[in-house]
Amino acid sequence: NFNLFRLETMYEIRQDVEDAVLRLCPFLTSDQSTQFSGWARMALPVSKFSIVEVAKPHVGKNHPSRVRADVTINLDIRRNIATEWDSLRKHDVCFLLTIDALSSSPTYSSRKPFLEQVRLRYLRGCEVEGYLDEEGRVVAEGFEKPDYKTRMRTVRLYLDVNQYQKDMEKTIKGSEDVYETFNIIMRRKPKENNFKAVLETIRDMINTECVVPAWLHDIFLGYGDPGEAHYSKMPNKTETIDFNDTFLDAEHLLENFLGMEIKCEAPPEKQIKPFKIHFPEKGAGLEVIPYTLPNPGPYPYNKPKENTVRFTPTQIEAIKAGCNPGLTMVVGPPGTGKT
Fold this sequence. Notes:
Blueprint: H1 2-24, E1 26-28, E2 34-36, E3 43-45, E4 48-54, E5 67-74, H2 79-86, E6 93-101, E7 118-131, E8 152-159, H3 161-172, E9 184-187, H4 195-206, H5 214-221, E10 240-244, H6 250-256, E11 262-263, E12 275-278, E13 286-290, H7 313-322
Parallel strand pairs: 11-13
Antiparallel strand pairs: 1-2, 3-9, 4-5, 5-8, 6-7, 6-9, 7-8, 10-12, 12-13
């Protein structure tokens, strides 16, 4: 699965690269440099690129612990496209390309092979840290972006440390410095650009020793009763569940456990969310435990987003099932609150 997904991802990235580069229409100038006469929604020419930090390796490693670079781009383009570029967020994955035009004529056809029309010399991945303000500081997540006086923007990027180490080893041996040649930065649609997180998850699962529970093993093999995988049949049910802000208030909590004996030692004025609920193994009652969250910080963006949905008893049961061992399947038509 890991290799298959990696190959599928590379094929999709290749298609996006070919589409973006051909739309930019690279051409050779009189001094044999590459310029661009077109435009692309997902790619922009690089105005300036510079490495700003190469951190020392960690103990036992031979590659830098962190490599950061600044890329300057010109957003003198359509307002809606400039807004999309301004919306780049931390951890978004972009690509740096070195493209060489093969002709002085900026005329291209998507029907002809890509490599017969342009030369893709280098392709490197990178991760966005954030935009820089006019004083060269990274604009933190949650803060409003500064009012830039020009259309020029500088993005701080994290580079692949392993690839950087390989490139530098080749440079020391006399090869070209890859990081002085980039002339295009490309982004992808967020829904199609989650490959890094998926690959990292698959890799971690491959490297983790995981024993499949007997009940799950039997279900996949088609043995026994699938109903035995329900959390109520599990011997190791979770007795105390932290519902956090699932319940909007104490009244909402009572609505979802009608007919059950509910105990709460806290005084009425302190019966406010968030709540933990203790479900004893025997008996129909439950114990409600209000608690206080730690202070997340003094700034507005430190405060996490709170739930505003008044969940129904069926939805609460689905949440409870998902917090317990066993197999839980949530089904329902669109708009019923599955997500």
